[in-house]
Amino acid sequence: MRSTDLYRRYQTAARDLAGHDRGCERCTSSDRTGTARCEVGAQLYEAFARLQGAYLTHLQNRP
């Protein structure tokens, strides 16, 4: 996978999560109150975190 593809997927996941959070009261309050995200929000967050980790690892390992 090229780094530009990984970056694009990471940024798309960030936008998807932010869009969901804007419309989901449970997910919006989860950061402030420590409550669990809704099922969809949890899946979006997991995808974002996984892609962010992969992209940061790629940056650390590049020559």
Description:
The chain is mostly helical and 63 residues long. It has helices at residues 3-23, 25-33, 39-61. α1 packs across α2 and α1 (3-23) runs antiparallel to α3. 10% of the residues are buried. The mean pLDDT is 89.
User: Which structural class should the secondary elements be placed in?
Assistant: mainly alpha
Report strand %.
Answer: under 5%
How far is it from the N-terminal to the C-terminal residue, by CA?
A: 16 Å
Elements, N to C (H/E): HHH
The low-confidence parts are none
Q: What count of helical segments does DSSP give?
A: 3
Helix content: over 70%
Radius of gyration (CA) equals 13 Å
Q: Could you report the average pLDDT, rounded to the nearest whole number?
A: 89
Major β-sheet annotation: none
Task: List its salient traits.
3 helices, mainly alpha, 63 residues
Write the layout of secondary structure elements.
Layout (H helix, E strand, L loop, with lengths): L2 H21 L1 H9 L5 H23 L2
Helix pairs in contact: 1-2, 1-3
Short description:
It contains 3 helices and no strands. It has helices spanning 3-23, 25-33, 39-61.
